[in-house]
Amino acid sequence: MKKRIGLTWMATAALLLGACGGESQESSGSNGDSDGKVTLKFHHWVKEDVGKWEETIAKFEEANPDIDVESIPLVDNMTAADYLKQLDLLASAGEQMDVLMFNNSSELAKRVDAGLVAPVDSFMEEEGVEMDEEYNNAFPQIDGSYYGLPMKSVVNLVMMNKSHLDEAGLEIPTDWTWEEYREYAKKLTTDDHKGSYFHTWPDFYHMVKMHGQSSGNMILNEDGSSNASNPLLRESLQLRYDLEQTDKSSVPLSESLSQKLNYRQQFFAQEVSMVPTASFMITEWGEFTPEFEIAWAPWPKNSESDPIRGVYGGDLISIAESSENKEEAYKFIRWMTTEGIVDQSVWVPSWTGADTNTVLEDLIANTPKPEAVHLESLKHVLSSTEKVETFIPKGYITEALNEMNAEAELYLLGEQDLDTTVQNMEERVQAVVDANQ
């Protein structure tokens, strides 16, 4: 396996942007080695000490001696948004790409529209793979084609500091509502810490109640029309305001923005007791090692009568349209999303052939502190959460979210009332829709 330090690669990319496209392409050359091996360049954002790429890829290379895989993390901060910016720069420079990772369907769709990603349907058909049977987190098709294979399976949940729960005399929730979440946050708040933390991502934390309904959980509908009038969007904003401003049980958005707070730091430093997040946090602790046991609760329901629901997502691994070795790239991504991700023992696989209980035990055993994970509550969340409907949104969803967020922040920062906020959001999102018809 070949490795390259991400920041060095980024610096190289910056230099390449100053050169002409033809020279950059020529300098890349063929991705076949002199000994006849094919070298695949695999771009992603997960650093080596988290992803364990070297030892994982070595197993693939041992079984496929004619293929080398070069792991290239483009960022050091494990932030997918920053990675995607670097990826777009490399694509503009005409750099060699073979295998790419994406963190959600929206970002994938943008790169499909830009011609960066190749469909995998012909390879799947030749192998006889049925996406929905092989993977439990199959991304929807884009214009009738699949543009990659699902890697990890991620579902919304709430991570909790069990020591704080015990001190407050609270049980780990197994079935609860957002009203109960609010009550928990009040009871967990002390002079030393807040009971709750909502991060700054607008499509997640401004819309928490929307994520619990069976469909219609994005700012746009599947046909591209506006969903800003969804009453659960208003209720989500009201809930966040009540937590942060009325109850003072959740870290205010103003502090998150002004101090550039990080949700991992807030949770692992025990500044907060609960964080609505997703199951990637089973293992993705960053540089932190918890000094307490992490409990897990299902995504809170909107009403008592609702089933436990959550948005399932996860990373997708794709083939670059510009790759000269698509067959070898498919062989790698197929292995990486089946045997490879199980051997990697970092994430819960989307592959239906994996034994979930065994995988969970292996994942936890490979964390820096296995005893910090409350396994019983985690298994309950993963087994009890019903999947909501998802779709690939229109490419202008980011613009719609930006417009929504601009108004939501004014409300959450106390600069305008909720009625004005909702009205302005509806008008601004509709303007985005109209401009893209």
From TrEMBL:
Q: Is NADP one of the keywords UniProt gives this record?
A: no
Q: Which UniProt keywords apply?
A: Signal, Sugar transport, Transport
Any coiled-coil regions, as ranges: none
State the signal peptide span: 1-18
Which Pfam family, any one, appears in the UniProt record?
A: SBP_bac_1
- Source domain of life is Bacteria
Matching entries from SUPFAM superfamilies are given as: Periplasmic binding protein-like II
Looking at the UniProt entry, the stretches that span the membrane are: none
What PANTHER family has UniProt attached to this entry? ARABINOSE-BINDING PROTEIN-RELATED (PTHR43649), DIACETYLCHITOBIOSE BINDING PROTEIN DASA (PTHR43649:SF12)
Any idea what this protein is called? Multiple sugar transport system substrate-binding protein
